[in-house]
From TrEMBL:
Entry protein name: DUF7684 domain-containing protein
Domain DUF7684: 1-52
Domain of life according to the entry: Bacteria
Species this chain originates from: Nitrospira lenta
Highest classification ranks of the organism: Bacteria, Pseudomonadati, Nitrospirota, Nitrospiria, Nitrospirales
Amino acid sequence: MTTWHESEPMEEVFWFSKNIAFHPTVKLGRTVLVHISSRNKHDELLKAYADA
């Protein structure tokens, strides 16, 4: 399952991922974050996801 949140704050995107997104027939056990950028934001994004 994928979603697109180009114009939304990262906090809202992560909250959506953890609280709203679901597959109707398959239990999703993992979340994969994909961030394509020339700047490494690994630690920042993982912290924001954990805090959501």
